[in-house]
Each structure stands twice: as C-alpha cells, then as structure tokens.
Give the backbone structure.
Amino acid sequence: MSKLAELEKLGQSVWFDFIRRSLITSGELKELIDKGVRGITSNPAIFEKAIAGSNDYDEDINKLAQSDKSVDEIYEALAFDDIGRAADLLRETYDTSGGIDGYVSLEVNPHLADETEKTIQEARRLYETLNRPNVMIKVPATAAGLPAITELIGAGVNVNVTLIFGLENYKAVADAYISGLEKLAGTGPTVTAGHPVNEVASVASFFVSRVDSAIDKELEKLNQKQLLGKSAIANSKLAYAEFKQIFSGSRWQSLKDAGARVQRVLWASTSAKNPDFADTLYVDELIGPDTVNTIPPATLDSFMDHGRVAETLTKDWEEAREQIAKLAELGIDLQVITQQLQEDGVLAFAKPFDALIQSIAEKRQRLLRA
C-alpha cells in the first residue's frame, strides 16, 4: 500500500500544490492521481512560474494574440484550460469519493482581497465559466473575504478559503461557512450549476510553515532556541481542536442532518523553509481525520521516500497549548503576527499575479512582432 493510500485510510487526502500545462499533457498528473493524489491547488505564484517560466504556453499565447485577445483574456484562457483539463482528469476521483475529493482550485484576482462585492462577482463568474462540479474558487480569509465566503457558499459555489494563519481568523472562517450553508439550505443554489446544501464543498486552508518562519525570528532574538520549529505545529493542532468542536455542536447538527459536509481543514505552506528542520515535518506532524494536506512537488517526493505515516494531529493538544502559552509569556503576540502574515500573504500573491500579467503582455507583443 502506498503512503498516500495509508494517509487516506487515516482520513487525510493529499492534494498537489502545483499545476502546469506539461504536467497535464505529459501524463504525469494522471500518474499522480493513480498513485493517490486526490486534488490540485493553484495560486498566482504557481501560475506565474508555469506560464512566465516556461515555453509551454507560447503557442496558445500566439494564437490568442493573433485573435486580438487582450492580456487579461489570454491569461484567463490559459488558466481556464489548465484548470478545466485537471478537473476533468480528477472527475473520476470526485465521483467515486462522493464529492469529498477530486477538486481543482483557482484563485480570484488577489487585488480584490479587500473588496467583498467584487470578490463575489468574480468568484461566481469563474465558477460559472469553468462549469465543472469539482472546481473550487479560492477566496482569502480577509475581513472583506469572510462575507463573500458566506454569500458564495449560500449560492452553491465550492470555496477554498485561503490565507488563514490564526485561530480567531479560522473560527471566523468556519462561522462564515456555516452561515453560508444555513442560507443555502433555505434558498437552494442561485448560481449556474451550483450545488445544494448536501453537495457543496469547502476547505479552510490553514498556512503552516510561514508561522514558524515569523515566530522563530522572534525566538532567536530572545535566545529561546529550544522553542524553534514548534509554534506552527502547535498553532495548527489548536486550529484542528477548534474544528472538532465547531463541527460537533448543536448549530452544526441540523445542517449535518440535511447532509451538509464539514469544512475540512487544509494544511497549506507545508514545505519546510528552515533547512535545519526535517523536510517532511509539516506533513508527518499534521496527519488526522477530515483533513487535506496540499503538498508541493519536492515535499511530496520526500514524503513518499521517507515520510512517516501515523495519526499525529489528534495527539499532544495540551503540549500545543503550552507551546502557545509560552509565546505569550515571552511577549510574542501570535494574533498580531498571524494577522501580519495574512496581509503579507495577500501582497505575496498580488506580486506574482502582476508579474504574470506583465510577462504575458511582453510575450504577446514579441510574438505579434515575429
């Protein structure tokens, strides 16, 4: 049995945090699916590397440019093609899992992170254009994003809520999801090809390694080296504890009776940034039921080679609370840090998006001159 199959038995799905045209056309994605990969996530940085960093798309860019398509239209045509093909390859996974897995995620324009209504309009448009039941639209968990999440779930759109770093923000995301389900249960789907309450799906993408990167800098200043590399796992375990509590309460029960699905926690940013840490740290230590880990290519290779499969997420919650308490005792404000990480994350996605658009513009101009 492969390690991915072992993880599935423990209730965790692995999604692949990467997409590129050649991954699809070469048959590599189909091979990954056959090995047990059960979904795909993308973001502006991934698309920027794929489109700007390769020649895979030049032929299509040329054809679209010759058809007098704008830069934005070219970007969307390329992204929609990749997302659509990947979703079609994962459709069998979606069907056989009863809609639990088999999803491909596409992010709304990161420049809309602080605009609720435009995020809703953009997400609905993306979902309707792709017109596949196993597409998720990524919406950031910003103050403006939270009401958008409620509206989109309430319309029957699958949502991958991204850029969650802190516990309070996570709880607000879960509340937005449940509020959306309550609305959907009353009105039914209002978007083309939208899902009813017993079929709509969502994940809460909780970012991991960046938390250690930020907190460990503060710990180094305080000469607290014995605490390095522990905060992100502790923070994630406390988020999972909140998940277990939220999706077992009385408010949830009525939705569960209507067939609603829990909003699984998805562990994002799970490659180890510190070379002193085990390269599979953020996979090995976050294995548990009703979760997803979206893993980039190099980390997936490492995990398949020497990762450890065991249910670790449900253990040592008290130790996790003590770790977070120690940070407070040292004067490290986790909530302030995680809020800053979210703000930085929005910018970190906006920059490659802008670079991608600029790259397409340059390629379009160069190819038209050729």
